[in-house]
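Quick start: read one record
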Amino acid sequence: MSTVKIKDKTFKTSFSEDEIKKRIKEVAARISKDMEGKNPLFIGVLNGSFIFAADLMREVTIPCEISFVKLASYQGTTSTGKIKEVLGINEDLTGRHLVIVEDIVDTGQTMKQMIESLGTRNPASVHICTLFVKPDKLLEPIDIEYACFSIPNDFIVGYGLDYDQQGRNLKEIYTLV
């Protein structure tokens, strides 16, 4: 098990690149089966989901599209609880099957707000796909159909997730020591 130092914090390896890719492949197979014939629109939540979204899309075997939205709710290692949309979606969502692609769901507040916002645009369905979920931290009753990993309430970096904008480029997931 290796460690990395990012700014003033030390992190230890918790998920290898191989473990992550294996789970993404499994989740992509489920999505491909569930969404067959529906041409889903994947909506990646930037910045954190960009690596996960790319790897997920490469494993999905059905016709699909992708778009991105940029939201912000973190400062340092804690969520501010206030979500501000920075970059929106331009596509017509009427009658579309949407799959929100998120790096991590902790409180669920971002997802709840996104589902409510997307729901006003008349989609056929809205689904959540996340690399990580923290079930013990969820404050909102949301249905997370596709989760690669359930984790405790630890702070993690790597594979797109950051600490103060650093560490996104790490190929593995590291947990704060």
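The longest strand covers residues 65-75.
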